[in-house]
Amino acid sequence: MLLVGGYTTAGEDTPGAKARGISAYDFSSTDGSLRFLGFTPAVNPSYLITDRRRGIVYAVREVSESEGAALTAHRVGQDKRGKVSFELISEHTLAGDDPCHLAFAGNAIVVSCYTSGTLFVFSRREDGAIGEEIQQLTLSSSNGNPSRAHCAVFQESKDRLLVCDMGAQQLAVFDRGEDGLFLHQKEKDLTFKDACGPRHIALHPEGKLAVVNGEHLGVVHLLDVSGEKPLIFNTANALPERVIDEASGAAIRLGHNGKMVYCSDRAFSVLNSLRIDERAKKLIFRDTFPSGGEHPRDLVVSPSGEWLLSANTKDHTIGVFRIDPKGSLIHYHTFKKIPSPTSLAWL
């Protein structure tokens, strides 16, 4: 099952918002087709993550604190006839503005709030419901621009959070102490001197490498995250040199074997593919593909590793691509009338 989050309220950055909440689709791994199953009303559930074992979807409510910014959890069920139901099992408001990303950190869940530059760590109960707020983290910037918390990933081998601070042009490092709380290790922060605007980060399956997509430059960074401090191994263009400063990069994902990298660019409505050469510790640009629509914000690889889907926010479509054995993308379908999709997650 594919779950789709989107923008429901129109704003300066979302003038065409038309989503109704969190939607569910049946996805065929045979031919890549989508079939609508149902939805639950929600306000700006612009990012989703799922606990597939428990059948739970967690979503942000991307609005300001004064408008009710929140983290929600729904249990998703499906009866014998295929009818889908959503049960809201917990909801927590946030003392931050514009939550835009979620990540698991062991049995905790981390919420990144873009505009306020804050992160919240919540426990999870045995049934998957959201527990107490464990910690609030605040980013700080020294370059004159306000911090922007856009994405966090948990590096299990180091019990560490890596946070993309787009305003500070940094990857901030938070190590978890014996008391279970994360502490900012500022001396370990990585500064991106090319002002790429680090937006999203993805960890290699082995946990020793990571890739970062820039929002302001059409580049992808390959990082060594195996040591005490993250280091840049290599930087590769994801767009032609003549237009890299016109980029509007968004999501980044790795293929199942960790050799291929896929990232989206909204300005040019394309998906870019790169290959990781682990021996040479470098990224090799492979190809660029039309995203199947306009303004691709998110993309996901199917659980089988055979398909890639793109969420095209501006024209309300989802592009479906077959991933061939060499990692190239073959466009199969563009599904229309999927309102303002911004996030895709499997359940």
UniProtKB/TrEMBL annotation:
- Biological process GO annotation list? glucose metabolic process
- SUPFAM superfamilies the record matches: Nitrous oxide reductase, N-terminal domain
Pfam families recorded: Lactonase (PF10282)
Which InterPro entries does the entry link to?
Cycloisomerase_2, Lactonase_7-beta_prop, N2O_reductase_N, WD40/YVTN_repeat-like_dom_sf
Q: Which Gene3D superfamilies match?
A: YVTN repeat-like/Quinoprotein amine dehydrogenase (2.130.10.10)
Q: State the superkingdom.
A: Bacteria
Give the record's keywords alphabetically.
Answer: Carbohydrate metabolism, Glucose metabolism, Isomerase
One GO MF annotation is:
isomerase activity
The text of the family note is: Belongs to the cycloisomerase 2 family.
Q: What is this protein called?
A: 6-phosphogluconolactonase, cycloisomerase 2 family
Q: What is the lineage of its organism?
A: Bacteria, Pseudomonadati, Bacteroidota, Saprospiria, Saprospirales
